[in-house]
Amino acid sequence: MLLILITDLVIGSVFIPRNFNVFRCPHHFYHHGLLPNKQCTGKWGNRIFYSVVTNSLGFRDEYIRNVPLKSNKRRIVLIGDSFVESLGLDYAKSFVSILNSRISKNKTEILNAAVVSYSPKLYYLKIKYLVENIGLRFDELFVFIDICDVFDEIFYEEFEPKEYNIIDDITYRVDKYLKNTSYIYYSLNRMFQKAPGKNEARVDGLEPSLAPTGNEHTAAVRKIDTHAVPYWTVDESSFKLCVEKGLPLARMNMSKLATLCKNNNVKMTLVVYSWPHQIFYNDCESIQVTFWQEFCRQNGIAFINLFPLFINGADPGAVVARYFIKNDVHWNSQGHIIVANALFTYMDH
Hints:
single chain; Rossmann fold; 5-stranded parallel sheet; two-stranded antiparallel sheet
């Protein structure tokens, strides 16, 4: 048995593909997040490798460190999805790091609570958990609304937070460890792995079984080609479900977040930004802009529109080539620099 075990682990170390998402994890209250105090290598696409470091809160950071729940400094928390998590980039090249390097560190601290595939429902649940369950105290919250959030809201519609269960946690950790080390376990898992259902939302870095199950709306959204997702702002008639279902869900959850911030004396700012698709269509007066601008006006929330950063009369192809990762929708290091420059003007530093 010992020989089999050793052989299994040795073979596993050679033939099991490296897991570049070991820093990601499910969460009982806000669906998924990042493991605290991790330092590892992440991978985006087939060719981009980047360093990932998280602090004690499970936020991307410059180095592993303990973040006190209360601080004498003015504290700003940023939350969003993959754009703000800064997929494909070392932390030092992210706009969050650039902002932190420019502000007075004796007076202000910026924390990054963003994680891939977040949307307003998870923004609300995570901030609620941080404030009410963990006891994190901060002064301002910048919420970055992504183009694909209307789709994600439909995916997460039926997800509900639950009480922490240590058995579930241990089971997941053991399962994850064995999949990364035991070739026998890894092979059996692949053999009997459940095929993803047509109404299951997938989240990068999480096991398929952890994806939220959905309803008929989720199934309808999944039928849309993922490459067509960002076009809902320029062809609303073809994506009625997003406008009629996704936007109201997003507004409802964002209203909950606004109320939570107000009750805890946190100043809330909402930020919108474009994908390359909006740039090519010159979609500067996008529904993504007008909808959330009106929401902010009605709720007394500060509003930042980053669409003009990339849609300003310049050649769209040149703009995308300069500021976005090649063949990707996310900003490259140059894109993060101009985003940091724009946001810096809105921060009292």
